[in-house]
Amino acid sequence: MATPTPRTLLIGALLGLGSGLLARVALGGDHAMVDGFVRHVAEPGGRLFLRLLLAVVVPLVFCSVTLGIVGLGALRRVGKLGAVTFGLTLVVSAVSVGIGLAAANIVRPGEGLPDQVRADLIARYSADAGKVAVSAPREATPAAILVDLLPRNPLGAATSDPPDLLGLLLVAALLGAALLSLNESTRRPVTDLLEGIVAATTVVVGWAMALAPVGVGLLLFALASRFGFDLLLVLARFAATVIGALGIHFAVVYSALLMAVGRSPVRFWIDAKEALLVAFATSSSNATLPTALRVATERLAIPAPVASFVLTVGATANQNGTALFEGVAVLFLAQVFGVNLTMDQQVSVMAMALAAGVGTAGVPSASLPFVALVLGVVGVPAEALALLLGVDRILDMCRTTINVAGDLAIAAIVTRFDGGQTLNLTAD
Predict the structure, then answer these.
(1) Domain range summary for the chain, segments of one domain joined by +
(2) Backbone angles phi, psi at 259, to 5 degrees
(3) Does residue 172 contact residue 360 with C-beta atoms inside 8 Å?
């Protein structure tokens, strides 16, 4: 199945939203005809689309993070520059998630719904939606925290409801590190298997996204006909929060990094505009990679070996715009469902977003399975992801642009540490 274009998704979303609002205004959300269509057509069809997306969440996240860690093994081959790349990636991603969480806490886009609308949402999606399910350690000592993070049974952690996401990510990181300690011939069968699982689950995600125009339209019809303009205004506030936080990260953090190595941010972004436009249009870091490589070497004076290494690693590992979105999305839905996350729990969300940023695929909507998984951890039903689907495509375009901009900025900084060296990326 072909991936739907942004225009197709937008048309599906607008048709569902517009017809739902029209039905609510003309007939009322509780009219027998509207209620029957929602119960027997819109909600089942929309939830079938969501279930297809959610079915592959755990294997996709686990295998992607493991392969992301293995992929970072290339950093060992480039010494100081590898350490600089990885260190900058972690720092910039942490800052991006921090900006997103701060924006979500200041703006609180998920609040403002009338009590009845919030109660209806909770009742519709889950009777336990208000139960905080973040797995906090039972004891506050550092040793107890460390012990509780590592699950006794990884399979049990994957199949529990909700899954033990922090435990799964830690096991994935341990497996990735263990594979790095093996020689290439020994680890290759394992990585081939993991890559095959990722490829297969990505195909399933692609099937789900091919149905997205219809699925999103049905879900938005159900939401609009039941909850009307109140929910629409909250979603608009969420989208504005994400875009504002992404804008701050782009204008402040990236520009500060460029100025620190003597590059003019204005000139840099003008020269990089072709790669940024492709990223915005495709919503895919992977699809943008050929253009980004050409722009980096021809327009930004970044040596080809540095550009090849940093941008290729960054297409998967430097998803700081995506990590920011994930943090805001989780807090937003927690606010909508009346789940108050403590600071410790928000730090847990931040850690999970950082870990997932290493393994999130650079393709459209790849962050949605991860968001769905985290929602279960924080006590919000995964089906609540439906609330985001109407605005996700435009936000995906924006966060992918930030991801690619971050790759280019980090490549420019790494160039400063190159000192004219030629990197050897092929030696094992």
Answers:
(1) 6-418
(2) -65, -30
(3) no
Q: Whole-prediction pTM value?
A: 0.69
314: Cβ contacts below 8 Å, ≥ 6 apart:
89, 285, 403, 406, 407, 410, 411
Q: Return the higher-pLDDT residue of 53 and 74.
A: 53
Residues 6+ apart with CB under 8 A from 243: 395, 398
Contact 404, 276 (CB under 8 A): yes
The pLDDT of residue 357 is: 60
Residue 133 has φ and ψ, to the nearest 5°, of -115, 15
Measured CA to CA, the distance from residue 197 to residue 195 in angstroms comes to: 5
Neighbours of 112 (CB within 10 A): 14
Q: What is the mean pLDDT of residues 217-230?
A: 78
Q: Is the peptide bond before 162 cis (omega within 30 degrees of 0)?
A: yes
Largest CA distance in the chain: 73
> In this structure, what token pair is assigned to residue 181?
């300690």
DSSP characters over 132-197? ------SS-SHHHHHHHHS-S-HHHHHHSSS--HHHHHHHHHHHHHHHHTS-HHHHHHHHHHHHHH
Which of 127-136, 359-368, 392-401 has the highest mean predicted lDDT (pLDDT)? 392-401
| pLDDT tier for residue 269 given thresholds of 50, 70 and 90 | very high
- The alpha carbon dihedral of 266, 268, 269, 274 has a sign of positive
Counting every residue, how long is the chain? 428
CA angle at 169 for the pair 163 and 173, rounded to the nearest 5°: 155
CATH fit for domain 6-418, picks 2.60.40, 1.10.3860, 3.40.50, 1.10.8? 1.10.3860
Most confidently modeled range among 114-118, 214-218, 331-335:
331-335
Would you place residue 302 in the very low, low, confident or very high pLDDT band (cuts 50, 70, 90)?
A: confident
